[in-house]
Amino acid sequence: MSPILIKTIQFFLSLSLLIVLHELGHFIPAKLFKTRVEKFYLFFDIKFSLFKKKIGETVYGIGWLPLGGYVKIAGMIDESMDTAQMAEEPKPWEFRSKPAWQRLIIMLGGVTVNFILAVIIYIGMAYSYGDQYIPMDSLRDGIWVTEKNIGDELGVQTGDQIVAIDGEEVENFDSLLGEIINGNTITINRDGNTIEKEIPVDFIATLLEDEDKIRFISPRLPFIVGEIPKESANKDSGLQVKDQIIGIGGQSITYFDEAKSVIERYTSQEVDLRVRRDGREEQIPVVISDSATIGIRMGALSFDEMEEMGFLRLETRKYTFAESIPAGIDKGVTTLVSYMK
Fold it and tell me: Which one, of 98, 99, 95, 70, lies nearest residue 85 by Cα?
């Protein structure tokens, strides 16, 4: 069987399961509150159904349009857009006749099931795979502050090693932003000196002014060539995608954030780049533009690749089954809150 066909079948089976579980979230409380459910459909049945069977007062079926599913509840306008029954007097078994709290539970049933399913999946992932993270102490040359104005307000700069928030050691890079937002003081190591600074009370407001810049702190990244545009003056220079630039005009660099100040010295000049390619070093002459750029786009490495190159360390936190339950719930709640924002 074709791999594409197998993946297609797996996709539709997964989609069907998610839809059915979601619709059960509406169906079950409706039945518990003695509300009539006229239809329970996987996929939409516009014009015709692939399958349908009436059991009791409910028609169960499979539609042909795989864009979701629905339960048609008497006295409620839903995906079926059946408004005719709303012109009649309310019946005791109809949705609109039920108390507000019951109507609310019926309406929220689907998303509640989605959330519970997500938590179960997160629990399973935590138990099976654990959580992979970047220990803060593995960032050997500190952090990269990608938005200088935000870093200045917080009082941090590229190369700082963030030691603690509110006196508590920061272990996990992924949790750093949340700890800063909720913290009062930040302790950093800069050039061998320990400095403690107050976190501005309105710092979260600064971050929310431009959500594209909210992740203003990153691990320091090597300068990897990601793309050489056709219009670049250096398209025929000999540079290749995935080259790691480790020197500019005799000045060694380790990280991308070090390159700008060095490149600016050679504006409108030709300069040799030292690159690492397939384990060996090469010299590549390039032209620096009037705007102090090389005319390339930066490439990205996976954290696994960065670990192999010695830029950071990855660790995995393992959970027992009992430990995976609160970890999964916490992940579910955190994800939900991030979507609500």
Answer: 95
Grouping H, G, I as helix, E, B as strand and the rest as coil, residue 199 is coil
CATH of the domain at 239: 2.30.42.10
DSSP letter (8 states) at residue 89:
P
Structural domain harbouring 233: 225-300
Element (H, E) at 152: helix 148-154
Catalytic residue IDs: 23
Specify the DSSP element, H or E, that contains 251: strand 251-252
Cα–Cα distance for residue pair 293/31, rounded to 1 Å: 66
What count of other Cβ atoms lies within 10 Å of the Cβ of residue 205? 9
Q: Which helix (H) or strand (E) holds 303?
A: helix 303-308
Q: Is 295 helix (H, G, I), strand (E, B) or coil?
A: coil
pTM of the model: 0.69
Average pLDDT over residues 62-88: 77
pLDDT digits (tens, 9 = 90+) for 223-268: 999 999 999 999 999 999 999 999 999 899 999 999 999 999 999 9
Helix/strand/coil percent split, the chain, to 5: 40, 25, 35
Q: 310 lies in a domain?
A: no
CA distance 165 to 175: 11
Q: What is the mean pLDDT of residues 192-196?
A: 93
Run of H or E residues at 17: helix 3-32
